[in-house]
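Hi everyone, sorry if this is the wrong subforum. Our group has a chain we'd like a structural model of before ordering constructs, and none of us has done structure prediction before. Sequence below.
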Amino acid sequence: MGWSFLTSDAANRPLILGEFRRAIDERWRLSLPPELVELLPAGGDDFILAKECCGALSLWDVANWQTKLDAAVRVVQAKIEAGKLDGRIEEVQRLGRLLSTRHRTVQLAGRGRITIPESFREYLGVEPGGEVLLVGAAICVEIWRPDAWLAYLEQRLPDFGALLGTLSG
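Answer:
Right subforum, don't worry. Here is the predicted structure as tokens:
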């Protein structure tokens, strides 16, 4: 069972695109530009902040994320109860650890601000006053440490044409 965030609801919204430079303030708050805020799903101020790769976080629609996560966890629980994961305790523990630390609910406050939770700050690797890049990643907003974003682009940008052709062809 794979994770799919491409739901019919997501298909009815425009892609979240754009790249914006912002600074994290002394209270670990980050203001999203209005161009990104208006592309986020309406209906609530709660979003999921997730650890992606070192130096990057992502901001997701809470309802969509939680629905997918709950479904995946139910499958794992059913497999545990049926004895299908006997002998795989280390993998189950690893999954539990990652589920415990990978994501957290955050609120989009006034002026499109979120506060970066303490356990996510070190992972992002940016100090207060430091700059980040906010990147529209089609179905979520990503928060990148600038050097990590540059490294990602250096690795992935040469494949842009082929990726666009594959997804649009």
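For your construct planning: The CA atoms of residues 47 and 63 lie 8 Å apart. The beta strands are 19-23, 29-31, 46-51, 56-61, 103-107, 113-115, 131-136, 141-144.
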